[in-house]
């Protein structure tokens, strides 16, 4: 796959400056509550400090092609997947360990530490740090190639904005919703290394003092520049990388600039990014896709007595809203508590299920936690489009709900 000039180091550096001052960094929505700000004062994530810490590493790695021309860092068409997979194999060991710890804490069990195991995990983390920049470069190049081949860009013959990522753990997100309705009221970026007991303490304090539904959640990525991407399996990692690039691309278009105007436009942005990311990942991996995308988020094949996560979560959201509409808050919250235990018993590690959970996950219309019809509507538009590039052209100039309603007629 030929990588075109806009993804070369010098272009990355120039374009980073342009993106930085054109609004490429997506801020969280800070709280105006002095109480909440005081509670989270030591846990807030600083985008500026993150950039100052991380960007020099990316710059040095990028310009080393110029400083040391004899050392070729360009990756062949066959190597990127191998490099990424090697990183994922090591990362899976760390994720497995973290999942075991999280499950034990949520269940209220004592987590017995094993010094030898902890030592091995630290070795894995050290190994990940050594190959991080190389893996990021592999992801950047393979996503860039796919974008180029699918003819998606603002300028002809140039990938703009360039694909630039960090695979350090993304920050966590504090999500706030009213208790008597499911509504995304505020989101605040917090540090990624807060422990589960710390999360419970912050949430309980906010809920007690502010009468809000609060949740601190991990996120899959963040459309900073470089974008932060959480490494999972290969397809999910490719999809998330493309998803975050989509947001960086859209910041130069009316749709992206309208992201924070209201919940509907935010849902359109996030759902379109999911559709885009999934298709890019399948294209890279040569996964055969149907002529038409499935336009139902509840279409997962599942037969009784199998536990269908999507169907069960969708039913949970529906029931919670019915209770809230009836004004029965205590019944809604007791129901969510019981359902969280059910999901946990079925192997789905959901630490907390509350109004804030549904408010956040609901902005992704392809999620079973959402009641939005945007996923079905955007899927129909994609199925009627000649290509992924054509789909993007149809939606990128949307700036309000009236534009959207005209498009889906």
Provide structural commentary.
The longest helix is centred in the N-terminal third of the chain and has 35 residues, at 115-149. The chain contains 15 helices and 6 strands. It has helices at residues 9-21, 34-39, 47-67, 79-107, 115-149, 196-210, 234-250, 254-257, 263-284, 309-325, 329-345, 355-361, 374-383, 388-395, 401-408, and strands at residues 165-166, 172-178, 186-190, 212-217, 221-222, 227-229. The chain has 409 residues and is mainly alpha-helical. Helices cover 56% and strands 6% of the residues. Helix 1 (9-21) runs antiparallel to helix 3 (47-67), helix 7 (234-250) packs across helix 9 and helix 9 (263-284) crosses helix 13 (374-383). It has 2 domains: 5-165, no CATH class; 172-220 and 261-273 and 289-408, no CATH class. The strands form 2 sheets. A 3-stranded mixed β-sheet has the order 1-6-5. Strands 3-2-4 form a 3-stranded antiparallel β-sheet.
State the gist of this model.
The protein is mostly helical and 409 residues long.
């Amino acid at each position: 796959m030929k990588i075109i000039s806009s993804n070369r180091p010098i272009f990355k550096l120039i374009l980073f400056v342009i993106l930085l001052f054109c609004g490429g960094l997506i801020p969280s929505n800070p709280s105006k509550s002095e109480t909440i700000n005081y509670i989270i004062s030591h846990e807030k994530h600083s985008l500026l400090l993150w950039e100052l810490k991380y960007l020099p590493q990316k710059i040095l790695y990028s310009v080393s092609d110029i400083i040391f021309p004899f050392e070729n860092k360009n990756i062949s068409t066959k190597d990127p997947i191998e490099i990424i997979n090697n990183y994922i194999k090591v990362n899976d060991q760390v994720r497995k360990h973290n999942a075991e710890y999280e499950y034990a804490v949520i269940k209220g069990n004592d987590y017995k530490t094993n010094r030898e195991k902890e030592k091995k995990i630290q070795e894995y983390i050290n190994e990940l740090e050594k190959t991080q920049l190389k893996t990021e470069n592999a992801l950047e190049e393979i996503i860039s190639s796919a974008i180029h081949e699918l003819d998606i860009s603002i300028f002809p013959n140039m990938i703009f904005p360039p694909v630039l990522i960090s695979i350090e753990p993304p920050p966590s997100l504090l999500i706030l919703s009213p208790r008597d309705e499911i509504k995304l009221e505020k989101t605040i970026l917090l540090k990624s290394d807060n422990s589960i007991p710390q999360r419970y303490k912050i949430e309980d304090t906010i809920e007690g003092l502010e009468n809000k539904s609060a949740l601190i959640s991990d996120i899959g990525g963040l459309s900073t520049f470089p974008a932060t991407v959480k490494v999972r399996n290969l397809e999910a990692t490719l999809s998330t990388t493309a998803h975050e690039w989509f947001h960086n691309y859209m910041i130069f278009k009316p749709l992206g600039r309208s992201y924070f105007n209201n919940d509907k436009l935010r849902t359109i942005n996030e759902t379109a990014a999911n559709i885009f990311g999934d298709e890019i990942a399948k294209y890279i991996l040569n996964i055969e896709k149907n002529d038409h995308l499935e336009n139902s988020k509840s279409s997962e094949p599942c037969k009784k007595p199998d536990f269908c996560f999507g169907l069960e979560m969708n039913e949970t959201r529906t029931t919670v809203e019915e209770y809230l509409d009836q004004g029965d808050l205590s019944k809604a919250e007791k129901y969510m508590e019981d359902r969280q235990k059910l999901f946990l018993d079925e192997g789905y590690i959901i630490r907390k299920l509350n109004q804030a959970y549904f408010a956040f996950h609901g902005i992704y219309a392809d999620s079973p936690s959402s009641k939005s019809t945007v996923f079905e509507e955007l899927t129909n538009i994609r199925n009627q489009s000649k290509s992924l590039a054509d789909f993007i052209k149809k939606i990128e100039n949307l700036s309000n709900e009236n534009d959207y309603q005209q498009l889906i007629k």
